[in-house]
Specification:
Number of domains of chain A: 1
CATH topology of the largest domain in chain B: Neuraminidase
Radius of gyration of chain A: 22 Å
Radius of gyration of chain B: 33 Å
Structural class of chain B: alpha+beta
CATH superfamily of the largest domain in chain B: TolB, C-terminal domain
Number of strands of chain B: 30
Number of helices of chain A: 9
Distance between the termini of chain B: 93 Å
Strand order of the largest sheet of chain B: 4-5-6-7-11
Oligomer: heterodimer
Strand content of chain A: under 5%
CATH class of the largest domain in chain B: Mainly Beta
Largest interface: A-B, 9 and 11 residues
């Protein structure tokens, strides 16, 4: 146990911590200079997985905080139906499917990026969401309904920004032209649909199979 | 261990199932059950706002009455109840005396003066009987009023040819008696060979078929049990005789509306009035079979004035685009977009017409593009206020199609308006009554389909009216019974709160809403009512809490704005002081240092 703690402590003191802070701060550079930023992110190794994880976690947390703490005027959450896990998975699962689908597609379309690079790029592209979302939660609590439109505007702006950044990430990481990038994104979205379909099919078939074997087992028990 | 956990889970599930079935049983087997809807559209149990106080079966009132057959409509005025016993071709008049319903009379025929002979002619013969009367409207009119508006209407009574004949030739004694029985008293009917006490059945016409142009129809005499002296005007929708008969309380015809003439009506249009109301200016609004342009409006003299409140045609954007793409021929061939047809109407104390439509698409009702209930002003514009969290459309949970229970949107078949601008809609799908306030909020819903007390048999016409402001009568045409609902204290409290609110006594209204909350914590309207009063008395923070409970973001925002002002006002002084200190202290410090320096140097 002491080893773990000393490990963590050395991390915070040592080179790792500095590197982590540097890569995390690099996200701010990326969102303002997307083309340079995403190119250097992978090609110059200026990003880190730890920072990417941090941004993803922050994104999930921002979403949850937004549901929980934003003002009643802009927040219409039905608490009896609210699930923290569903909301978390609602971000993480599409993210993972997106990365997978994009990796599958770009592998076939001469993409240069690795799986982890796509993940890192997408995570860095999500930065505007917590960056704008968290102040907006505070803002929503001091505005009336009429002023609350700013909350909506800024959050929409954050999403559009993030979307644009994802496009840039795909272009730079895979070294695509704009046309190819858009095609890759479109096919990736299709791929996401296919993956989800197959997953559903898989699970329903598996459950059917399980039910089948259970009933056979029961039948045998009855006959014996 | 695995099996034990499994067993535990199974047991838990069983318990859950048992419990849930138990709670269902409570909800279903209860005589009937009142509810309202939450902001999220969940059914929320509510105390009964109306209780079943009586179920009237006609046979128990008077042996003459028998059963109702396909009765479609019911009208109440003062202490009288008129029931259109459609398939029996009669109108039954009841009276509520000290809580008991009594038969007043059974109306089979009306009386007419000579001058109405032509107007009352149907199928070649003067006909004063009713043929499937579908609706009746009654209003208070004094004799002077009637005479100034319509002139002398009583005149010489019209003598039917068959009656005239028997009077002239008193040779057939037996048949003469039969005739007079119809005209005078039922007691004489004992002598007639037919067991039916109603005299004047068409048998006597057979010996002399040459007299009348056609075989006269069976003319049953009215049965009169109580001779009341009232000043009313009766408007009877004599549906299959294609006319509206307007007569006084003694059944003397005052005017007749028939054969409307207009270019919009096709050549083969036959006027089948189904439901009607009249206004103060003696205009009659008729909902007639197959008329899609709204209500037919008739002038005092019975001439057709025009249509009123034509229902808006609902065309979706896609339908519009699709239509654009079609050629002219295709357009002509494809089905026309016809406005929907009204199915019932009633008039409130101030002359506004409440109307219902049931031939609507479920999806349009849900989207609010179709309006199952409307309030029309004199121009025919829909002025119903729809400020509730849901549109006034009855049930919000429509059930699934799997069960035997009916599914789909509520179909309103009748509406009544109360003096405080609340209105009650009757749903045919599930046999329920929905009470809305003047803002369009659902106050409560009750009733059900079924065979027990307070339930209605489904899929048949049901009709209702309010006997007084606290009693609703519902006519179930399949069961042939009238169910009387009387308002409970809970219902009265809601009315009281609404009344005070409308008068502007917000604080008093809030007090009543607080009492209501003790009965029903689910009623979001009560929270809004209290919140409004708190808002007016500058209790912004508490008002916000109440508005949040009711999910009323508009009012919450208003309260919040004031609350924010309060907070800023309260703390602005500290803020200013803090700023000032931040600015001043460094200056002072600098000055002190300077002074010190100077002192030291000096």
């Amino acid at each position: 146990m002491s080893k773990v703690f000393s490990g963590i402590a050395s991390f915070f003191k040592g080179e790792g911590w500095a590197h982590y802070r540097k890569t995390l701060r690099y996200a701010l550079y990326v969102i303002l200079h997307p083309f340079d930023g995403f190119w250097d992110l992978t090609h110059e190794k200026r990003g880190s997985m730890a920072a990417a994880h941090t941004i993803v976690i922050l994104t999930v947390l921002t979403h949850l905080w937004d549901r929980r703490f934003s003002s009643f005027l802009v927040n219409n959450t039905r608490w009896s139906e609210f699930s923290i896990w569903l909301n978390t998975l609602g971000i993480l699962v599409p993210l993972i499917i997106w990365v997978t689908a994009n990796w599958c597609v770009t592998t076939l379309l001469n993409g240069k990026g690795h799986y982890y690079e796509i993940y890192m790029g997408t995570a860095y592209a999500l930065t505007p969401y917590p960056l704008i979302g968290i102040p907006m939660i505070f803002l929503s609590n001091i505005t009336t309904k009429e002023e609350g439109v700013f909350y909506t505007y800024f959050n929409t702006f954050a999403l559009i920004w993030a979307g644009f950044l994802i496009l840039c990430a795909v272009l730079m990481i895979h070294d695509y032209s704009l046309g190819w990038g858009l095609v890759a994104i479109l096919i990736s979205l299709l791929g996401m649909a296919v993956i989800m379909f197959i997953a559903l099919l898989f699970f329903s078939l598996i459950s059917d199979a399980v039910v089948f074997f259970i009933s056979i087992y029961k039948e045998i028990l009855f006959r014996l | 261990m695995k099996t034990s956990t499994k067993r535990f889970i199974v047991l838990l599930m069983l318990l859950c199932m048992l419990l849930s079935s138990l709670s269902n049983a409570i909800a279903d087997d209860d005589d009937w059950y009142t509810y309202s809807y939450s902001y999220w559209g969940e059914e929320m149990a509510s105390p009964n706002a109306f209780a079943v106080t009586n179920v009237v079966f006609p046979a128990t009132l008077d042996e003459e009455l028998g059963r109702f057959s396909g009765a479609t409509s019911l009208f109440c005025i003062d202490d009288l109840v008129f029931v259109c016993d459609t398939k029996n071709n009669r109108i039954v008049e009841l009276r509520k005396v000290e809580g008991v319903y009594e038969l007043v009379r059974i109306i089979y025929t009306v009386q007419l003066a000579q001058k109405f002979a032509e107007a009352m002619t149907y199928d070649g013969a003067v006909d004063n009987t009713l043929f499937n009367p579908t609706d009746i409207f009654v209003k208070k009119v004094t004799l002077e009023d009637r005479l100034t508006n319509y002139g002398e209407y009583r005149g010489d009574p019209y003598v039917f040819p068959d009656e005239a004949k028997t009077e002239e030739t008193p040779a057939d004694g037996e048949e003469k008696k039969d005739e007079t029985a119809g005209e005078e008293e039922q007691k004489e009917a004992e002598e007639t060979p037919t067991p039916t006490p109603e005299g004047g059945d068409g048998g006597e016409a057979t010996p002399t078929p040459t007299e009348a142009p056609k075989a006269p129809k069976e003319r049953k005499a009215n049965v009169v049990r109580q001779d009341l002296d009232r000043e009313y005007d009766l408007y009877i929708a004599d549906c299959q005789h294609c006319r509206v008969i307007h007569c006084d309380y003694d059944l003397n015809v005052v005017s007749v509306i028939r054969d409307p003439q207009d270019d919009t009506l096709g050549k083969d249009f036959i006027f089948h009035p189904e439901h009607l109301v009249t206004d103060m200016a003696y205009r009659t609004y008729v909902q007639a079979q197959g008329v899609l342009n709204g209500f037919m409006e008739f002038n005092k003299d019975g001439s057709f004035k025009g249509y009123m409140g034509a229902a808006k045609v609902v065309i979706s954007l896609i339908q519009k685009l699709w239509r654009k793409l079609k050629t002219q021929e295709q357009r002509d061939r494809s089905a026309q977009f016809v406005p929907t047809e009204y199915n019932n109407l009633s008039v409130d104390s101030r002359g506004f017409i409440y109307a219902t439509i049931s031939s609507l698409e479920d999806q349009d009702i849900w989207d609010g593009t179709a309006t199952p209930v409307r309030k029309l002003n004199a121009m025919g514009t829909d002025i119903l206020i729809r400020n509730g969290t849901a549109f006034p459309m009855g049930d919000l949970s429509w059930g699934n199609t799997k069960g035997t229970a009916p599914s789909g949107a509520s179909k309103f078949v009748d509406v009544i308006a109360f003096n405080n601008d609340t209105y009650c809609c009757l749903d045919k799908t599930r046999g329920k009554l929905f009470m809305y306030d003047f803002q369009g909020n659902l106050l409560y819903a009750f009733g059900n389909t079924g065979y027990s007390r307070g339930r209605f048999q489904k899929y048949m016409a049901i009709s209702m009216d309010n006997l007084d402001e606290e009693t609703i009568l519902v006519l179930d045409s399949l069961a042939g019974s009238i169910t009387e609902f009387t308002m409970t204290d809970y219902g009265r409290m809601i009315n009281e709160a609404l009344r005070l609110y409308k008068l502007g006594y917000y604080d008093e209204s809030a007090e009543v809403w607080k009492r209501i909350l003790q009965y029903n914590g689910n009623l979001e309207l009560a929270y809004i009512g209290i919140g409004r009063a708190l808002l007016r008395t500058d209790n912004y923070e508490e008002a916000m809490r109440y508005f949040e409970n009711a999910h009323d973001s508009e009012n919450y925002s208003k309260a919040y704005q004031h609350y924010r002002e309060q907070v800023v006002e309260k703390y602005i002084i500290y803020f200013v002081v803090a700023i000032a200190l931040l600015v001043i202290i460094p200056k002072i410090v600098r000055k002190v240092r300077k002074l010190r320096k100077e002192i030291r140097e000096a």
